[in-house]
Write a structure and sequence with these properties.
The protein is an alpha/beta fold. The protein is built from 5 helices and 4 strands, in the order E-H-E-H-H-E-H-E-H. The protein has one domain: Rossmann fold, CATH 3.40.50.450. A 4-stranded parallel β-sheet has the order 2-1-3-4, with helices on both faces. Helix 1 links the parallel strand 1 and strand 2. Helix 3 crosses helix 4.
């Protein structure tokens, strides 16, 4: 069974995006994947945030695939993407950009360009 970790906004997750992502998560689960979705699967009751980072780190570490809903206003997503990038040094993980149609390349160095390259990287 493949393990998938979803990187997405949590604190500022709108109801509309929650529904879109929940549908995505349910589809993956119906296909047989074990999915860790932080809004539901990471204990968010942490006044500092360190335990949230630790829970996500462990789930990212064991995941086979990292699926990302990129939102440049989500600092937690940047942190999780950074951890994913670090783990790519020692393990292969497939990177899927859920909203790739909304992540456009820029003519200059940018995080968007980095993500688009990671998606193209061989797994």
């Amino acid at each position: 069974m493949k393990k998938v970790f979803i990187i997405c906004p949590v604190r500022k997750l709108s109801e509309e995006l929650r529904r879109v992502l929940l549908d995505y998560v349910l589809k993956l689960r119906q296909e047989g994947a074990a999915v860790h979705w932080p809004p539901d699967d990471t204990n968010q009751d942490d006044p500092v945030g360190l335990n949230i980072c630790k829970q996500n780190r462990e789930a990212i570490y064991v995941a086979d695939e990292i699926h990302i809903w990129f939102d440049e206003s989500s600092p937690g997503s940047f942190f999780d993407i950074g951890m994913t990038f670090a783990f790519l040094r020692s393990s292969e993980k497939k990177i899927v950009l859920i909203n790739q149609d909304k992540v456009l390349p820029t003519p200059h160095k940018s995080f968007q360009n980095v993500l688009l390259e990671l998606v193209k990287a061989p797994s």
